[in-house]
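can u do me a favor
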């Protein structure tokens, strides 16, 4: 068994409408699924991705109005990366961020890649990472947006950074349970702190990496809006999904057991530092209940929630996405 790479990250927002504007109109991603949080159907769950809704390109948001702000710290998925084709794209995005008033850093080298760090309107820490022809897990299909040339469009998820107080327990789960391998390190840009450690799975490359930042000087994170709820990793099919369920049990890792999300099957567990991991199948995908051409345009509900559509829609606040 081998995890293929990153599947998605799920983040908390307090303002779904403004979130939609930022991720579709500024970043140019496609809303591929507008649905509800299956564990709390009074809350929306929005999925942004590439043109096809490809696993490994998805950034999702739970909409929780009046949620407090995240206070950064350890036990945190502290940064989410988004892939672009090359370093020239970073220059395009730097100009675009200036145009739209998006707070950003200068272009800097991280893990021997050109990157551009920025934050969204709720303080979510993001960075663009240039592929520059690097081998590894393939990128997605760019979504065509009038004012973003296709050659500069976002094409998938890049590395996620996990900030922890003690790295060894997290590394143990990544390598001994999940099959990740150590592939390198790079200096911290935050001051005199330990180098960040790079672990990869599958074909490797930007879309298959976890970076470990050790920061014992920080307090534990308090998660709120702008914070990352969990990171999911790609399981190719249901057969391997069943094997992963057995593997977690064999390693005595407390977990959710098998969870049917309809668009994918999931397993949830916390690694020793308390960060929530998910293993998600690539199949069946977001086009299983909507034509690919019109994904995300209407409220989609999985079959097990469809009989409650009227009740669910009555309790949901109106959400106007223009």
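np, heres the sequence
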């Amino acid at each position: 068994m081998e995890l293929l790479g990153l599947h998605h990250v799920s983040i908390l927002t307090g303002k779904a409408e403004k979130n939609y504007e930022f991720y579709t109109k500024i970043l140019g991603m496609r809303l591929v699924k507008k649905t509800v949080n299956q564990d709390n159907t009074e809350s929306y769950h929005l999925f942004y991705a590439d043109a096809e809704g490809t696993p490994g390109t998805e950034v999702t948001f739970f909409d929780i109005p009046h949620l407090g702000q995240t206070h950064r710290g350890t036990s945190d998925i502290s940064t989410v990366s988004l892939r672009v084709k090359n370093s020239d794209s970073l220059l395009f995005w730097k100009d675009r961020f200036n145009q739209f008033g998006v707070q950003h850093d200068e272009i800097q080298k991280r893990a021997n890649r050109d990157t551009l760090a920025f934050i969204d309107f709720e303080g979510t820490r993001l960075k663009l990472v240039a592929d520059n022809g690097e081998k590894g897990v393939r990128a997605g299909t760019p979504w065509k947006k009038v004012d973003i040339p296709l050659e500069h469009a976002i094409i998938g998820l890049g590395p996620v950074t996990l900030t922890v107080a003690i790295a060894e327990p997290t590394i143990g789960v990544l390598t001994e349970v999940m099959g990740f391998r150590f592939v390198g390190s790079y200096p911290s840009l935050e001051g005199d702190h330990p180098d960040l450690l790079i672990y990869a799975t599958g074909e490797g490359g930007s879309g298959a990496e976890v970076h470990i930042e050790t920061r014992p000087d920080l307090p534990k994170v308090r998660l709120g809006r702008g914070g990352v709820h969990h990171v999911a990793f790609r399981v190719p099919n249901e057969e391997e999904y069943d094997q992963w369920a057995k593997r977690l049990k064999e390693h005595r890792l407390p977990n959710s057991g098998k969870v049917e999300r309809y668009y994918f099957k999931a397993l949830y567990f916390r690694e020793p530092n308390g960060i929530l991991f998910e293993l998600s199948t690539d199949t069946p995908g977001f086009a299983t209940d909507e034509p690919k051409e019109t994904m995300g345009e209407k409220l989609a509900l999985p079959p097990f929630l469809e009989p409650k559509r009227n009740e669910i829609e009555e309790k949901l606040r109106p959400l106007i996405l223009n």
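The chain is about 15% helix and 35% strand. hope that helps!!
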